[in-house]
Amino acid sequence: xxxxxxxxLPEKTWDDLEAYFETPKAGKRSLKDDQSRMRLHLRPAFGGxxxxxxxxxxxxxxxxGLLQRVKRKQLxxxxxxxxxxxxxxxxxxxxxxxxxxxRPAVKLPPAEDKPYxxxxxxxxxxxxxxxxxxxxxx
Length: 138
Known about the structure:
The termini are far apart. By secondary structure, this protein is an all-alpha fold. It has helices spanning 14-22, 31-46, 56-71, 77-96, 122-137.
């Protein structure tokens, strides 16, 4: 493509992208997880839209909505990161398929810092192993 040349994109929708994206992943273990994230989060936000209507602004608003759900303790930050990573990957696939000229910016929130709890004594180790045994039986 040369500067000033008009690009004609196919009229593809989010639904087309979902179908196209799932095909090569048919044998992957993460397919069910991806399908669940698409069904619960991405499809309600982007389903039926033309891919060219998925803009930086629309993605930023979607991200903000997810982060509001984190504040209300409805989603974990890790879940939001997975949803946004899937969105980013799917939009990259659309660019590779020449359905989009460029991918809208998708910014992942920083990962949660969870402090690691060190086991400092044999007593703590015994309590940990006892708890793990109970968890295994449940």
